[in-house]
Amino acid sequence: MKNVLILSSSPRKGGNTDLLCDAFAKGAKEAGNKVTKIRVADKKIGYCTACYACKKTGKCVIKDDAAAIFKKMMAADVIVFGAPAYFYSCPAQLKALFDRSVVIYPNLINKQYYYLLVQADENKEMFAGTIKSLDGFLDCYEGSKLKGMVAAPGFYEKGTIKDSKYITQAYKFGLKVK
Predict the structure, then answer these.
(1) Are the CB atoms for 125 and 158 separated by under 8 Å?
(2) I need a surface site. Which of 38, 70, 72, 83 has the fewest CB within 10 A?
């Protein structure tokens, strides 16, 4: 059994990204894993001020939900980033969490990752910036391994992804987590 943490970063609850995350979670649970899903947009996460107090104390001076999320990330074997593409990048909610992870740097090691991506544009090549922003995070932590990605283009209206092949792909990736 693995400890799976899903970070859904869309501010749209029940939207297309959330539905992909739920499908992955269903598969991972059926495979016998412990699954926790956090809607990042529902959490209070302040912006890093680059004060670097964390380098001296091991704790961030900003008192919000980030510390609890980092604790779950450290305990996870598998981390899933659910992200809609916003202007060819990941949403600000997720980026703020990435920036704040300096407090746990370089200790988030040997994790497996999955990306669940959605964008309105139908051109799959437009995912490149979003993928690069997520890969940049993985590149900072030793032993990070991208195990799979669902990149669903052409979905804008809430819930339109529900009966698509991408929901099935996310579910199947969840089933593979062992």
Answers:
(1) no
(2) 72
